[in-house]
Amino acid sequence: MKQITYAEAIREAMCEEMRRDASVFLMGEDVGVFGGVWGVSAGMLQEFGEQRVRDTAISEIAIVGMGLGAALCGMRPIVEIMFADFLMCAGDQIVNQVAKARYMSGGKADVPLVIRVTTGAPGSAAAQHSQSAESWFMNIPGLKIAVPATPADAKGLLKTALRGKDPVLFFEHKMLYAVRGEVPQDEDFTVPFGKANLHRHGDDLTIIAIGAMLPKALQAAERLAQEGIQAEVIDPRTLVPLDSPTLIESAAKTGRVMIVHEAHRRAGPGAEIAAVIAEQALEYLDAPILRVAARNVPLPYSPTLEQVVLPSSEDILAAAYQLLKGVKSHAAV
Amino acid sequence: MSDLHADLSSYPLPFLLEMFRRMTLIREFELRAIEERHQGLIPGFIHSCVGQEATAVGACLALQEGDVITSTHRGHGHLIAKGGDPRYMMAELAARQPGYCLGRGGSLHLSDFNLGILGANGIVGGGLPIAAGAALAFAMRNEKRVALAFFGDGAANEGAFHEAANQAGVWKLPVIFFCENNLYGEGTAIHRSTAVRDIAERAKAYGFAGVIVDGNDVLAVYEAVRAAAERARNGAGPTLIEAKTYRLRGHYEGDPQVYRPAEEIEEWKKRDPIPRFRALLLHEGRVTEETLEEIQGEVMAQLNEAVAFAKQAALPKAEDALYGVYADTHQQLVF
Questions:
Q1: Which of A149, A233, B58, B303 is the most exposed place for a label (fewest CB within 10 A)?
Q2: How many domains does chain B have?
Q3: How far off is chain B from A122, nearest CA to CA, in Å?
Q4: A44 and A174 together in one domain
Q5: Residue in B251, B271, B276, B278 annotated catalytic
Q6: ipTM of the assembly?
Q7: Number of domains in chain A
């Protein structure tokens, strides 16, 4: 299978869908001539022309709102918001217009709109360019939320989003753009929403890892395996819809669960996932559910400070040992 | 006598009568809805456009089939003017199953996509970028269609207006930004909220024409929108039309209206667009009193039917509240 980067996988998904469907187009700040500030849409202007790869003003309300208007009139826009931090500039359009158009019209409105946005801390980008905004929008019925962690999932989930009828917030982690992985080249390769990916089987504990935390979780699981501890690692892939059955099944099997994400800990995605597991699998749990997440302070600029705030592989290991405290069979505990 | 002066000979009589009919239908629809709200049929807000019927009708009759509008929180007039069915509107206001939005939207979210009504809106300025996006879709597909965004003077101070106007100006989109300036943003007079006297001036900042029109003169509104739509269809880009008008009732039903003097309302009643147009029609001798009375009677019968329809319509089933958030969830949501 072909090895490509996460960024290339996203570009492939966009280009393939634009070739097969004339209603798909891309617009956003610097997506055309610049090729996207992260290079994700590089070369697309040359292939598709300025009608379908549109540089916009720095106007997030217009970008999202016009995406919605075009979607309501038969197009399938991909709009790019450069940083998740800027989603709030378009807050009304996302929350009050895009998310609710279908429901409040009595189901008449299809809203095939994909909002691509970069998420997470790229390092020393400080408080307004580093946030993981996923859970801000989990509280808004009507949006679907994808958080791909691998190149294959990035491509497959984006293609699913572009063939759907509902608005999708598509969170691309900046630190994953250069990550390489195998990606199917079948034009109809898609990844369904609401289907978690079980990356590693294990009976001792469950690590539910979101976005860029997946590689860190797999790293930690590797270390744990050397100590004879088998961690199950699951990537939900989409937060809305959430594959609760898979998460609950794993929780019931291992009895020990942690949720790892880069979003802030308070009311982050982990809070919802923990609640779902507590509601439906509490009787199977042998330890309290733990969250490994960013500390509840804005992201600082200094690398020294930033690393205190962001979750690391070591934090995941520490949480694993805490979950396994008192389990005598594990030498490491 | 009407203070309006227009050469009616250039308009076909049925067209003029349709203008009168739609304005009358809007006025009577709202008065009836207000009454039914007091009677308990309608549970939600009503923001009436009594006094502003000429903007809705003049603008929508200047559009063609296939053109779309976005509306506002004061949107009943826009819907009716664009061809909305009073039965489904009344049923929606009455929160019934056959309403335009299955009882999920109410007055603030009325829409009919088949008629090109992309929705009223509960958020001031919310529809402006949506209309620009509709226009973008038309332009990209080389369709000769136009989008018109109704908005109020209050929305002219929202970022959504400025962002949509700028981007539409850059791309020369076939969109008409139609401002109904009724002099008050909710309870705040325009001179206390807005740094320019005329909203139309702001068009200059975005590279297209701004036009001021008497919003209580239905034919003047019609001509302004017709010209703007023609420009848009010919690729000449957006137009900002500012229609000076006045709402004769409160911001919402129950508004104590402490922010404006009663004399001001009385003064504007003299420029009520419906009696004005009626007098013009009669003065020009194109129409008889009887014809207009007949139309008035037909409108009242239509509204009786709409209210009866709403009253006998089923309520939504309680479990339906959980359906239809997404396209693929016809069953109860588990996520």
A1: B303
A2: 1
A3: 29
A4: yes
A5: B251
A6: 0.96
A7: 2
